[in-house]
């Protein structure tokens, strides 16, 4: 029988890579982080800061999705739910006088709790049930949120904060959260949990023979991923100061959160980050230039990636690097 | 609430179940043979609706005849999609991530094509049938619903006949029961899969046409029906044709009678609640329950 071709790539060993390329890949993340942290030195315009802020919240959600979709191989179409719940929880808490950091944590906690709603009934079963349920959950939650009166229903909810609006303050919050998310991703990947997740992705039965509890492990990583998406939603909500169900719970947010890791490279540490930057920086341009056809473009992109380079940008660059190395040898 | 009202609701639910079954059976065939969850189903439902609509508006083809025409057209469309995309990905006895994502991409493309061609305004197919109804005593049957129900049932009966009396049908059922054993006895997997995909898409297109006779539609309209189709095939146990009929009936009854209890604005959440409930209580679907009962006996 044909085995499932995993979407993700396994990180290739360092053997066979030149010292220079190893140095480059080790130095790149701190350099990028440092230049993002030193952003005020470049005196960027408010629109650039806004774009980077949004991109950084996307990085957080994308890295979160990858914990579940990339490492454990469970495709979710419903991450908009966690993003939206985090946004609403943070908004309600901030208006209730709770300090923002605590509000973000609350948003993450509520999202993690909500992840059980889909996880508990589906993770015990084999088959496509989880992916199917995630398609339904965002629509169901959006409908409920459109109708509940205490968050303003369909007309949305406004966050009122006293004090001056400091864009850089929001930017650094998003940067900290994104760095935290990447840190969690690295820790998970290197821990026993990460090994268990990859074992589940490759062969769930074999994993449970080796003493991994697939049900509990998937629930745990789903909650962790949801918490990251929820925190990202909370940070975004505080910046936007206004949220509505059609905005934060929209199915297209779920699509975006899934598309980013796939563009960058599912199942890798840096793929989701690269994918989020690619998506975050080009998305608005694409929507602006092709307002009628941007889903067509992203859908075709998805099809092309799946058929030709399932490992995304990371896989493509690995392939180019190998090609380059081979040519130099000959 | 009189007895006649309840009876009317019940009849409405049964009539709805017919078209629900027709719209879900295509997913069951494709899942059964290839273990692929066809996330692009919604896109083909939508295309089917516009196909019948355009046939009626441009060429004055009766919608019922349009639905009949949709079968061959969408059959070849489905075979084409299989040839172009689906056959290139590996399959397994479990749905693969690649297949989910690929068909999801197809859905996005189809939906956006719909927006490009027809815009996002709602359309509806209005024929003299649309508003007439048949009255028998206190019970009224809306004509269009009767016609749609009849067409759905006829198509399902023809499918059942094909599955049981032709070599293609036997190959399909063999692959559904045991893929490897089917290959050993000489079933051509690739060809059967291609034809099965075509049949699945043909049913999606035709069901979309039938739905278009009942509801107004926009390029987005497949999505809610796709969720319903998921619920129905999960209730039915994913791979059972009898299960699809029962699942369709359960969902139609739940939706129809929930109007009495749940505010209409929460209606779209009902299908999802039923899905979660089904996964907790009946993970193998109604067919699984039936099998279990048989094992005990």
Give an overview of the whole structure:
The complex is a heterodimer of chains A (330) and B (297). With 330 residues, chain A is mainly α. Chain A has a domain at 47-254. Helix content of chain A is 73%, strand content 1%. Chain A has helices at 19-37, 46-71, 79-95, 100-122, 129-147, 167-190, 192-202, 204-209, 214-240, 245-248, 251-264, 271-289, 294-308, 312-329, and strands at residues 157-158, 242-243. A two-stranded antiparallel sheet of chain A has the order 1-2. In chain A, helix 2 packs antiparallel against helix 9, helix 2 (46-71) crosses helix 11 (251-264) and helix 2 packs across helix 12 (271-289). The longest helix of chain A has 27 residues, at 214-240. Chain A is globular and about 65 Å long. Chain B has 297 residues and is an all-alpha fold. Chain B has one domain (15-222). Helix content of chain B is 74%, strand content 3%. Chain B has a two-stranded antiparallel ribbon with strand order 1-2. In chain B, strand 1 (133-136) and strand 2 (139-142) form a beta hairpin. The N and C termini of chain B lie far apart (41 Å). The model of chain B has no long low-confidence stretch (mean pLDDT 86). At the A-B interface, helix 4, helix 5, helix 11 and helix 13 of A face helix 4, helix 9 and helix 11 of B.
